[in-house]
Amino acid sequence: MKKLNKDKVIKKESIRRADNDHFARTLLTAIGVGEENKLSSVELTDLMQQHKKGTQKKGGSFKKEVQRVLKKYTSDTPEEGLILTVVGRANYYCWSSDEDKAHELVKFEMSPERAFGLSFIETYLENILPPNIYNSLKADFHVADNVLKKTESNRKWLEKLDFNSSGLATFSSIEKASMPQDDVDKWQDIFEYTFKEHCFSANYPSIHDEYNRKLILSPQRITLFNNQLMLLAYEHGNETHDASIKFFEIKRLTNVEKSTENHHSLTEDEYTHRHKVKAICHTWVKQYFESVDFGSPIKFSTTKSDDCWLMEVTTQFPLHFDKSGRDDPFFFANYIGMFADSIKIIEPKFLFDEMQRRSKAIADLYDRNEEEKEFNIISSSPDNMAKRREA
User: Fold this and answer.
1) Contact criterion met (CB below 8 Å) for 5 and 13
2) For residue range 329-363, what is the model confidence (pLDDT) as tens digits?
3) Distance CA 142, CA 157 (A)
């Protein structure tokens, strides 16, 4: 069987959508503003007969298409938008105002601004979209690309902006277009299980031996961490392993199958604790934190040094996956690490201890030129960061 060219499929889908949009826009344009200009569905169907050939509709299917568009755009709010009035057995339609009509019709136009927004999503955020939603937007992405190519200025919009959330020009290596269908299906299933709160079983290759087995997971949420798509899930445990909450890299989950186990939902309080973070930081770090949304107010106080500030903020820390109930400094320590020696954590103690451990290990790593020492430090790093011990 001849394989369809993907560009031709996208182009065909774009043409189909353009035809449908043209039909809907023409129908909505024909409807008048105000009660005195209302038209019945029969009158509107008659008006739209001239578009019958262009939309490839015939007889009853054409009438159903008119009804579908009218039903889709009829307002649920009385006296706003497209208003439906029933007189006897006939349905009449009119717009509430010129403004509401114009507001609805402009949605059919692919403005340069809309095109840029879609292109930005496709370029930087496509992996956070479930595969079915991404596929439904392919035609829109294709149209947006063509719109941005029409003028020199529009083409430069994406060239002049960088989205480097980790501070470097790093991008996810995952390309949906080249992914095997089994992987695409797996991703779609995981999204569905998460949204619908279904359990699933899976295997997960991990540096932590307790997860190298068949797992039963209750997915909680999907997060994009440094271009890696992660699943926060409750792992049900078994007769030899206690239940836990952990982030799993979606790409590494294999043998994904829906489970008959009951889904276990968690509230944030069940897998996070709030702690006040106190730190001494340089002015440039203060300016950074003032320019981002940290989720809660940050307080800065002067110190005896003009370049240093006392920073105080209350934030959330996940509970450690070792089931001990202690707080896990891993993600916050990674984040604070980008400020290097321009910040010093004072509290909480568990975060201070981890930053101190890392700083000593890094100093040891770079102060010595002993190959064996380097290998030992790097090899033991994951265990030391996880502070693996009996709960």
Assistant:
1) no
2) 888 999 999 999 999 999 999 999 999 999 999 98
3) 17
- The predicted-structure confidence for 59-111, as pLDDT tens digits, reads as follows 567 888 899 999 999 988 878 899 999 999 899 999 999 988 988 887 787 88
pTM for the full model? 0.67
Position 58 pLDDT exceeds 60: no
- Residue 8 amino acid letter: K
Phi and psi angles of residue 377, each rounded to the nearest 5 degrees, phi first? -65, -45
Three-state DSSP string of the chain: CCCCCHHHHHHHHHHHHHHHHHHHHHHHHHCCECHHHCEEHHHHHHHHHHHHHHHCCCHHHHHHHHHHHHHHHECCCCCCCEEEEEECCEEEEEECCHHHHHHHHHHHCCCHHHHHHHHHHHHHHHHHCCHHHHHHCHHHHHHHHHHHCCCHHHHHHHHCCCCCCCCCCCCCCCCHHHCCHHHHHHHHHHHHHHHHCCCEEEECCCCCHHHCCCEEEEEEEEEEECCEEEEEEEECCCCCCCCEEEEEEHHHCEEEEECCCCCCCCCHHHHEEEEEEEEEEEHHHHHHHHCCCCCCCCEEEECCCCCEEEEEEEEEEEECCCCCCCECCHHHHHHHHHHHHHEEEEECHHHHHHHHHHHHHHHHHHHCCCHHHHHHHHHHHHHHHHCCCCC
Specify the pLDDT at position 177.
63
Between 321 and 230, where is the model more confident? Answer: 230
Residue 16: count other Cβ atoms within 10 Å of its Cβ.
12
